[in-house]
């Protein structure tokens, strides 16, 4: 076997820590536990039908419906269990919160408690599991409040804006399994060597191109979109004949991780905006363990993430499972979408050429 010249995730973290001699090593241990959880989930996902874990939780099984009102897949439940078990014991965490758990998870008394909070979506893109399309896990690391020592954490302890994240990232379980990580000084990507069982540094400096000709949105919601979103998409669809003067391509995987990863690799813009489908919901995606970590990764890679109205990372959370409108990716496109939201509504939609060619015009 030829020894790889690429550092493993462990070597990378040790090397980073050497630059901060006072660091306790807790953070590195936490990232390695998260990475181990991701490897275990990658394996469960890769077994597919053979693993006997596809499909929904059986009716009547405990927690078959999660706090979001969504019917859980068996792999949602398994992945949540893997995250909890592999991260609760090490002494780095004061608490955890997950898409699949209604309340924050307190670290059991038998384990030491630490200074970090881990928030995660253990399996993102669940609707794709049974059709063998890429899914992933998303994680965000915050610091526990100073007064948290020795007590079980409450929801309020997790309600910190994304700017407070210490680290964030995701694993994608695609043709290759990858781990993408930011600790606030750029974005790095590791690819799992399935024989060594190690994440190897393959993408030391990920950057999102500022411009793109590719957008991603669930067009089946178009009748519920707000005017700035309709305007943006219509202009993309009008292509070379419209105000953008160039043709666009469209993608929709229905897996946030896979969408974020594509955009990180080659640019693009993703929109899951707030819409009128269910006015009680402020969006589809969850702020604390989907939008914030993806936004942190995007910004650290030179991209941008917005609600349409403001920078995602500056949103003050009010609820653990709060939803939010999310637009992210190539900087110039996200800024354009923000401009459309800031302009008086209807402007642009009423431009004569645009109105004539609008493909999503209200009837
Ligand atoms: O089904 P839709 O409306 O296309 O929504 C797809 C979105 O929902 C999600 O699957 C939600 O995540 P979960 O699978 O973790 O609930 C995102 O990954 C994806 O972007
Ligand atoms: Mg998700
Ligand atoms: Mg999920």
Automatic annotation (TrEMBL):
Residues bound to Mg(2+) 2: 121, 124, 290
Domain Fructose-1-6-bisphosphatase class I N-terminal: 8-204
A biological process term (GO) from this entry: sucrose biosynthetic process
rRNA-binding is among the record's keywords: no
Domain Fructose-1-6-bisphosphatase class 1 C-terminal: 208-341
Enzyme Commission number(s) from the entry: 3.1.3.11
Pathway: Carbohydrate biosynthesis; Calvin cycle
Domain of life, per lineage: Bacteria
GO MF annotation list: fructose 1,6-bisphosphate 1-phosphatase activity; magnesium ion binding
UniProt-listed NCBIfam families: PRK09293.1-1, PRK09293.1-3, PRK09293.1-4
Subunit structure: Homotetramer.
Family: Belongs to the FBPase class 1 family.
Name assigned to this protein: Fructose-1,6-bisphosphatase class 1
Organism of derivation: Ramlibacter lithotrophicus
Lineage: Bacteria, Pseudomonadati, Pseudomonadota, Betaproteobacteria, Burkholderiales
Gene behind this protein: fbp
